[in-house]
Structures are given as structure tokens and as C-alpha cells.
Known about the structure:
This protein is an alpha+beta fold. The protein is built from five helices and nine strands; from the N terminus they run H-H-H-E-E-E-E-H-E-E-E-E-H-E. Helix 3 crosses helix 4.
Amino acid sequence: MNKEKVKESLQYIFKENSVVDSSTKSRILSKMITSSKKKRIIFMPIAVMICLLLGTAVWSATMFSNNNTQNAVTTEVQQENNENQLQENINETNKIAELEFEISRFEEEREYYHSVIGRMMSKLNNEEMLELAKSHFSYDIKVNQQQLPNNGRIEVDPGEVDVLLTFSMSPHYNVLSEEWYEKGMISGDYFSHITHVTPNNWEEIYADGSNVTARGYKFKNLKSGSIIIMSISEELKERLSLDTTNIEIVVK
């Protein structure tokens, strides 16, 4: 109700009750205002309390709903992770089983080959056994990474010259006895089978690997017309399949 309506209502009340005195009017207005204020004072805390309770109820319902949703999502993710982990474990188990099967098959195959090789080797004479043992070892001479020809003579460019004797071996895989394995190697130190090296202004070089080892000579500042000469043993000549025991390296 606006102010004008209130004013009209008061004037009507004063008129109907024959209230003319201004002090009386003031007292009535004062009581009405005081009464209205008291009602508002009493009503405001109640209204605030109701609002707080309603807000708390709404907040609780919202949080409860969010928690339920979050818990549901967490449970679903956890379940998916568990399923993925289970599948990974199954795949890993299958791989292990396959590898174990392959290893078992290889072991059976190896035993079969060993038995066949053993029967075949029992029919070899000493010369044939020696050739088989020698086949486990190889020797090679290269000059500046070039293969030495069968005649033992090679030409190189001026400057630095490397002569390298390489010795390599293949695993015997328990096929040969230790006695035959040793007989298959060249006698003594393989590098000692190179002798009488000229000129003598060289330095020794090395190159080693797991089953390969190499030793040789490095010549520096060789000019055109220079000649390197060296001798090898008959045993090394045979292993190298050369036609001569004399090696000649000519600088162009």
C-alpha cells in the first residue's frame, strides 16, 4: 500500500471516530508505527533463519549429488583401469608361455643336431678332424684395407701405409673337444708368424673385438718408389691361401 492510500485511510479513521485533537492523532500514529516496527523486528530474524535453512538444505543437496556423481565416475575409471591391467597381465603371461615354448623347442633341436654331428664326427679320421678344427679359425692380411693378392704383391699410394693381420675364431659350441680346438689354431702367437719387416721405422697397431683380434704395422711418410718387404711362415701362408711366403708392398 502506498503513502497516499495510508493517508486516506487514517483520515477516514479519524473522521469516523471524531478525532479532532492533533495530539490524539499523533499518539495513534505513533502506536501504529511502533506496532509495525515491532512486527518487522520480530519477523526479520525469522525470515533470515528460514533463508539460511533453505540455503543450507540446497547446498547439502547439491554437494551430495556432486559427491555421488564423482564417486560414480571414480568407480567407473577404477573398474576400467582394473580391466586394462588384467588384460595386460594376460597378454604378458601369453608372451612368456610362447617364449618358454620356443626355448624348449630350440633346446630339443640343439640336442638333435649335437647327436647327428657326434655320429658324423665319429666317422672322421685324424686328418679330417684337423681340417674341421682349422675351419673354426680364419686369418687375413690387408694393406690399407685392401685384400692382399695370392702372389703377395700389392701397390699403394704414397703417405701412410697400414699392414694388418686379423685373426678371428668361431665358437665351437661344444662340438669339438678342447684338444681338437687347440689343434685348430695356428701354433704359438699368430703375430709372430710375420718376420723380417723392412724398413724398420714402423709402429705396431692393434684392433680388437669380441671374437676378432688384429695386429700390424703402420708406416708413415712413405714416398713414391718405397718398398715394404716382410716374410711369413709356411703355416701362415697355408692359412692365408697365399702362393708365397714373401710379401712386397710397393709405393706408387
